[in-house]
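Hi all, posting the design record for the shared folder.

TITLE: backbone redesign
STEP: 1 of 1
STRUCTURE INPUT:
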């Protein structure tokens, strides 16, 4: 059970409409794989669960019993309980938007979201356990698998290239660069002063509900620090980004890239060239 599926359900239950963009079509096939038990990196698992829930909700509205047959009763009860709690968390965050960053609400809520992620999603639990134990290689092996959600192609690159903040061959829009650069950040810096996650629990939670899974049809939002920071795994994410081919640099062979750049230059050469 992915936390984002609960968050998506919360939005649906409250009458909000989940955005449907190019990301949904690109992730369709791999979403099915994640639902069938394939390994999905922490951030991407949440993306997939959000996309999967839109179909889950549609089936429930039309067929009712489809969901009950697909999942054991215990799992369904757990999902519904999580849904109820996620609705309450989302609403509480919105009500506290004007509260000071030092309000105890933010630390308590971040801790609850972290615990829900750990308890509801087996993949996230595995990543969090690897990271807590400092097992970077195991974390990377699971995350970098070709079957992993982060390996899904999105706008011509792997989805987690957006999360990592790759700049080579990427269009970062008006900002011109990623919000969080995991490709250049030192491992161990994420939670230190000036680090990617050192923006406070309040901002992380606001990012989670306003630029989190429900807004990931825009790939730029995938890079905004939120749920992975709350989960406590971003130093491991940094290691993964820098060790998984294609996440920080184009993984094609150097001769192929050189040939492509030569062709691009030749296409714009001055008319006097022969």
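Okay, here is what came back for every position:
SEQUENCE:
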């Amino acid at each position: 059970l992915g936390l984002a599926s609960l968050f998506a359900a919360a939005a649906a239950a409250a009458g909000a409409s989940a955005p449907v963009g190019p990301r949904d079509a690109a992730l369709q096939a791999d979403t099915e794989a994640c639902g069938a038990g394939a390994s999905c990196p922490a951030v991407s698992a949440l993306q997939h669960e959000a996309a999967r829930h839109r179909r889950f909700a549609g089936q429930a509205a039309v067929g009712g019993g489809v969901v009950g047959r697909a999942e054991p009763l215990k799992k369904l009860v757990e999902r519904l309980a999580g849904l109820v709690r996620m609705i309450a968390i989302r609403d509480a965050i919105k009500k506290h938007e004007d509260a000071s960053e030092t309000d105890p609400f933010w630390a308590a809520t971040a801790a609850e979201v972290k615990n829900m992620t750990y308890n509801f999603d087996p993949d996230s639990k595995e990543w969090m356990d690897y990271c807590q134990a400092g097992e970077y290689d195991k974390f990377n092996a699971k995350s970098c698998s070709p079957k992993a959600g982060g390996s899904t192609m999105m706008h011509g690159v792997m989805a987690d290239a957006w999360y990592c903040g790759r700049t080579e061959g990427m269009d970062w829009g008006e900002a011109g660069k990623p919000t969080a650069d995991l490709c250049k950040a030192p491992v161990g810096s994420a939670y230190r002063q000036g680090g990617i996650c050192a923006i406070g629990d309040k901002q992380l939670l606001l990012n989670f509900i306003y630029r989190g899974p429900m807004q990931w049809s825009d790939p730029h939002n995938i890079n905004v620090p939120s749920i992975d920071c709350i989960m406590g795994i971003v130093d491991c994410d940094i290691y993964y980004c820098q060790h998984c081919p294609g996440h920080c640099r184009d993984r094609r062979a150097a001769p192929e890239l050189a040939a492509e750049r030569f062709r691009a230059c030749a296409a714009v050469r001055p008319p006097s060239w022969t």
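COMMENT: The first strand starts at residue 153 and ends at 154.
Let me know if anyone wants the other runs.
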